[in-house]
Amino acid sequence: MTYTEASLDALRRTGDELADATVATLFARGEVGKFNTLMRYVSTAGAPLPDGLPDVAREYLAATSVPPAWVDWGEMERARLFFIDNNVHISTALSFASMPACYVVPNVARLLSATHSLQYPSKRMAETGQFTVYLMQPDAFEAGSRFVPAAQKVRLLHASIRHHLERENRWDTQLWGTPICQEDLIGGQLFFSLLVLDSLHRLGVHMTTEGAEAYYYAWRVVGAMLGVDQDAVPKTLEDARAFLDLYMIRHMGPSEEGAQLTRQLIDLYEEVVPGTFFDPIVSALVRHLVGDTCADWLRVPRTRWDVLVKAVPHLLGVLETIEDRSPLGAWALDRLGHLTTILELSSLTRGRVMHYAIPEHLRKDYGVDGMVPRTHRWVPPGATVSP
Fold first, then answer.
1. Among 89-103, 268-282, 357-371, which is the least confidently predicted range?
2. pLDDT, tens digit, for every residue of 225-247?
3. Is residue 154 part of a domain?
4. Measuring CA to CA, which residue among 147, 131, 148, 135 is closest to residue 61?
5. Does a structural domain hold residue 73?
6. Which residues on neighbouring strands pair with residue 208, listed in sequence order?
7. What's the angle, vertex CA 42, arms to CA 41 and CA 45, rounded to 5?
8. Kindly report the CA angle at 251 between 248 and 253, in degrees rounded to 5?
9. How many domains does the chain have?
10. For position 106, what pLDDT does the model report?
11. Checking CA distances to 146, which of 25, 224, 299, 354 falls within 20 to 30 Å?
12. Within-domain flag for 214
């Protein structure tokens, strides 16, 4: 697939027709509060919908309750096993690479600053981590799972943000495009998939081509559930690289909002890290994963750990070799990764379950057995645009 400035410009002007129409109707009828109240009781797939749910919401939930017909369940299982095998590394990449990458796109940083409480940055991190954990459960799309309702609510949340920003004249659509447009939705999908894989490679994590492709495939399914245009989304990792290269060249740069969000993210994880001696490793890891140019734009401080953190790939390489060669070592590291992910989520949420709801206004001050043996390791697709 070939991506051009013109094709991405078209995506910049497009939102999510189904979710946007649903939210517009809910607001027009004054039914958002009732919808949010009732939806707090719908947290698992297949649960009976509560009485009194607005008809337009009931129709939306019915239309979005099943995954796309093209899903390959064998590939989804390979993705789940890849996640189990690498969950602590994936959590690291999401926190220290994917989120800063969002912040290095000024329009995205501006939108996040306008729609999320700057006093509680842990909320967005916890929602992202919890959403990924829901996705990678073996029953993610079955009755009783939490992933499908979470995806349905996130899609409506995006639509409500578009609704508010445009109606309140807080977004220059002519200059910046539609809020949470299709171009940014695809970019975000790639931040949480291809960029995670890039980060794992940079950290020295052992991956197979099959595992990397399966993980990317799972996020294509996520994109479909979140209203991403499937005619435009990259189908392969090579196409994903071409899209992401062009997207970043079009949009990345410094911004006050990006620097502020990054500072909050660093402060958040320094608080999670016990004591203070290891605090600088947070900044060092962000700098290592996003590179010096982006780190400077985000005002990530340079620390004494910047050189030491480059040894992380060698340490992980030793641990991964133990895992590859020893079933007991593999089991122990998998359990450690699982516990680390659970503890991280528990710390970020203070033990609470996260809820997604349509904001009725935007506050002005927020701005199979069977993983393939890890030989023939995956190498990221090369850059498609010359520096």
1. 357-371
2. 999 999 999 999 999 999 999 99
3. yes
4. 148
5. yes
6. 377
7. 150
8. 95
9. 1
10. 95
11. 25
12. yes
Residue with tokens 């920003």: 165
3-state secondary structure the chain: CCCCHHHHHHHHCCCCHHHHHHHHHHHHCCCHHHHHHHHCCCCCCCCCCCCCCCHHHHHHHHHCCCCCCCCCHHHHHHHHHHHHHHHHHHHHHHHHHHHHHHHCCHHHHHHHHHHCCCCCHHHHHHHHHHHHHHHCCCCCCCCCCCHHHHHHHHHHHHHHHHHHHHHCCCCCHHHHCCCCCHHHHHHHHHHCCHHHHHHHHHHCCCCEHHHHHHHHHHHHHHHHHCCCCCCCCCCCHHHHHHHHHHHHHHHCCCCHHHHHHHHHHHHHHHHHCCCCCCCHHHHHHHHHHHCHHHHHHCCCCCCCHHHHHHHHHHHHHHHHHHHHHCHHHHHHHHHHHHHHHHHHHHHHHCCCCCCCCCCCCCCCCCCCCCCCCCCCECCCCCCCCCC
Per-residue confidence band for 312, with pLDDT thresholds at 50, 70 and 90: low
Tell me which residue of 377, 11, 15, 1 sits closest to 200, measured CA to CA: 377
What is d(CA 273, CA 275) in angstroms, rounded to the nearest whole number? Answer: 6
**Gap between the Cα atoms of 166 and 288, Å rounded:** 37
User: Token digits for 68?
Assistant: 């796309």
pLDDT tier for residue 278 given thresholds of 50, 70 and 90? low
Residue 286 pairs in a beta bridge with: none
Place of tokens 């890039």: 198
* 132 touches 154 (CB < 8 A): no
- Asked whether residue 65 is domain-assigned, the answer is yes
Location of structure tokens 């002519």: 174
Lowest mean pLDDT among 34-38, 49-53, 89-93, 163-167: 34-38
| Residue 111 Cα distances to 17, 236, 264, angstroms | 20, 28, 16
Q: Which residue has the tokens 């508010």?
A: 164
C-alpha 169/C-alpha 136 separation (Å) is 38
Q: Which domain holds residue 285?
A: 5-349
Length of the chain: 387
Say what percent of the chain tops pLDDT 70.
76
Q: Residue 349 has which token pair?
A: 């949420």
Q: How far apart are CA 187 and CA 194, in angstroms?
A: 10
136's tokens: 């990678």
Rounded Cα–Cα distance for residues 36 and 53 (Å): 9
Q: Average per-residue pLDDT in the chain?
A: 81
Question: Rounded to whole angstroms, what are the CA distances from 200 to 107, 143, 315?
Answer: 26, 32, 13
